[in-house]
Design brief:
Blueprint lengths: L1 H37 L4 H22 L17 H14 L1
Helix pairs in contact: 1-2
């Protein structure tokens, strides 16, 4: 029980850092776009920035939430019931 509490305390401490990183990155991105838009950069270049930023956010999420436990590479560490996983997979497929 004590290790569970210690683990959740560590998670909540790290959660603030994650939210701060995401918020700071978003604010920095908006400021950067505002500056380069005022400099007269064409709209298609701004579109490339949006695509790159999206990919960079996914990369940061992957790095910040990485794990060294092999069991965690499965869907939620195999803690998600099969019905829920199937429902989620079908909604993703329907969205495509």
């Amino acid at each position: 029980m004590a290790t569970q509490t210690a683990a959740s305390d560590a998670f909540y401490k790290q959660l603030g850092r994650m939210y701060g990183t995401y918020t700071g990155g978003f604010i920095g991105f908006v400021v950067l776009l505002a500056i380069i838009e005022q400099l007269g950069v064409p709209n298609y270049i701004l579109g490339y920035f949006f695509v790159f930023f999206t990919l960079a956010v996914y990369a940061v999420i992957g790095v910040m939430t990485r794990t060294a436990q092999v069991s965690e590479y499965y869907v939620a560490g195999r803690r998600v019931p099969a019905e829920s996983a199937a429902r989620q997979a079908s909604s993703v497929a329907a969205a495509l």
